[in-house]
Design goal:
- By secondary structure, this protein is an alpha/beta fold.
- The protein folds into two domains: 160 residues, Rossmann fold, CATH 3.40.50; 57 residues, DNA polymerase, domain 1, CATH 1.10.150.
- The protein contains eight helices and eleven strands.
- α8 links the parallel β6 and β7.
C-alpha cells in the first residue's frame, strides 16, 4: 500500500469519476466522418482537452466556436452509456466537501448533466472550460482548482486519466495519480502512482487536518519512484 498526504484532492471528471467513453466516442466519430476525418484518431485525442481545442487541432478550417457549440449540444442530449466509475462514489463520500473539487475540460452544463445522470453530487464549486482561458495541458485549470479550495497547489493531489491532464497538473506543481481507465499505461506520463481505477483508492481525514490518501497494492498498482 502506498500513502500520500495532502490538503485537497482535485479530480478530472470523464475517465476518472464518470465513464463517458461510449457517448463521447459515438458523437466524435459521427462528427469526424461528417468532415472527412479519421474517427478513431479524433476520438482518441479528444480526451482530456476542451472541445474547442480538439476542433482547432483537427479541423482548423472550420468555425471552432460554432462546431464546439454543436458538439456540446449533442453531448448534452446523449447520456446513453454513461456510468459511474468503480470507487468514485465511495471516495467522494469519504472526502470532506470543502477539500475536493472537479477540474474538467467540459463546460459546467455538461459536467453537471453527466454527474446527475450517474447519481453523483454536483460540487458547489468546480473548474470547467467556462472558467479558464487556457485548457489542459496548460496548468491554468489546476491552479484555478487549488485557488478555489484556498490551498497551496503543491499540497493538492490530482487524479487524472489523460496525458494532457497529467501534464497540466504536473506543470501546476501537483503530484498526480494516473488511472488506466482511458489510456494504456505506456501512454501516461510519469505520475506518483498508476492505478486501474478509484476502486484502488481510499482516503480519510487525519487528526492533523491533512488528508491521507492510500492506494492499495493488491490492486496491481504501480508506484513510480520520484
Amino acid at each position: 500500500m502506498s500513502s500520500f498526504s495532502c490538503e485537497a484532492v482535485l479530480f478530472d471528471l470523464d475517465g476518472v469519476l464518470v465513464d463517458s467513453t461510449a457517448c463521447v466516442s459515438r458523437i466524435w466519430a459521427d462528427w469526424a466522418r461528417e468532415h472527412g476525418l479519421d474517427p478513431n484518431y479524433v476520438a482518441h485525442i479528444t480526451h482530456g482537452q476542451r472541445t474547442i481545442e480538439t476542433v482547432r487541432q483537427v479541423a482548423p478550417q472550420l468555425d471552432a466556436r460554432k462546431e464546439t457549440d454543436r458538439i456540446e449540444q449533442q453531448e448534452l442530449n446523449d447520456t446513453d452509456g454513461l456510468r459511474v466509475l468503480p470507487g468514485a462514489r465511495e471516495l467522494l463520500t469519504a472526502l470532506p466537501p470543502d477539500r475536493y473539487t472537479i477540474v474538467t475540460s467540459g463546460t459546467r452544463r455538461l459536467a453537471s448533466k453527466r454527474l446527475r445522470a450517474v447519481g453523483l453530487a454536483v460540487p458547489p464549486q468546480m473548474v470547467t472550460a467556462d472558467d479558464v482561458t487556457h485548457g489542459k495541458p496548460n496548468p491554468e485549470p489546476y491552479l484555478a482548482g487549488a485557488k478555489l479550495l484556498k490551498q497551496d497547489p503543491r499540497k493538492c493531489l490530482v487524479f487524472e486519466d489523460a496525458p494532457s491532464g497529467i501534464r497540466a497538473a504536473q506543470a501546476a506543481g501537483m503530484p498526480v495519480i494516473a488511472l488506466t481507465t482511458t489510456y494504456r499505461r505506456e501512454e501516461l506520463p510519469a505520475a506518483v502512482a498508476i492505478a486501474p481505477s478509484l476502486a484502488a483508492v481510499k482516503a480519510r481525514l487525519q487528526t492533523s487536518g491533512e488528508l491521507l490518501v492510500t492506494v492499495e497494492s493488491s490492486a496491481q498498482i504501480e508506484c513510480v519512484e520520484r
